[in-house]
Amino acid sequence: MRPWITLFTLFVVCILSFQFRDSPSGASHPVKAERTILAIFAHPDDEIMVSPILSKYAREGVRVYLAIATSGQQGVMPHAHIPAGDSLGKVRTEEARCAARGLHINPPLMLGLQDGKLATNESFVLLHRKVDSLFNALKPDIVLTWGPDGGYGHPDHRAVSNIVTEVYQLGGTNQPKKLLYPGFPNETLKDLPAFKTFVGSWLRNSFHTTDQRYLNYQIPYDVQDFNNAKTLYGCHHSQWTPDMVDDIFVLLGHAGRTVYLRSWYGETALKKDLFE
Question: 25, 218, 237, 259: which is deepest, by most CB within 10 A?
């Protein structure tokens, strides 16, 4: 094993020892039968589709971790006036920490790969090793990541989906029990109300949807989880203005306070809980 892989694994184990150290109250939640969820995405703010259930399960005492492949250092938005590069990456890393604190999940695990370059052979190898290390260190029961569509086709999103699935399907002692991809039912984009910003039209025209019969995990959540997720999405201020956040959560709300997911291997039984 290469030294950097060992160091990365040790870092993850250290995170395990300081759960919720960044929580505003300083209090940890009781662990419920040591159940663990690991969400793995490409950029800070990619957690949007599952953020209400990250809040829900953390509130119920499940250990929840968010791993982010890149710092999003290329994600320039005009309103933020922050150039691409390390300065933006540092801002977005802090935004991810802010969001995790508000969701009462563990501090985000930043994997340190390059934004915009995940779909390369070199990145594939590095990401494979880091995901494998996460599985071994955290031993998650449930893994959530982008589906093959990458939400709206982003190459980095597709790359994360590809590699997480690749590591998962290898099996092994520490294989998680389930790998799930979030998605929006086709009906979600129908009869949407008016939007405030261009983001609404972009979501309507660019986001990929899924036939609902494939989205067999339909996880309900409370209004407090919806409001919590919306408030915390405001942490990502380098990417979204308050009006943009409102538009994004119109779409989430249109899904009926339910997060839809599907199993990687196509099981069909309808589930209302990730741990069923």
Answer: 259
Kindly tell me the sign of the dihedral angle through the C-alpha atoms of 108, 207, 157, 181. positive
Other beta carbons within 10 angstroms of residue 263's beta carbon come to 17
Chain centroid to CA 223: 20
Task: Read off the amino acid at residue 113.
Answer: L
3-state secondary structure of 270: coil
Six token digits for residue 233: 């999405």
Amino acid letter, residue 38: L
Sequential pLDDT tens for the chain (276 residues):
455 554 554 555 454 444 433 433 333 444 445 899 999 999 999 999 999 999 999 999 999 999 999 999 999 999 999 999 999 999 999 999 999 999 999 999 999 999 999 999 999 999 999 999 999 999 999 999 999 999 999 999 999 999 999 999 999 888 999 999 999 999 888 888 889 999 988 888 888 999 999 999 999 999 999 999 999 899 999 999 999 999 999 888 888 899 999 999 888 899 999 999
Asked whether the beta carbons of 256 and 202 are under 8 A apart, the reply is: no
The answer to whether 66 and 106 are in contact (CB under 8 A) is yes
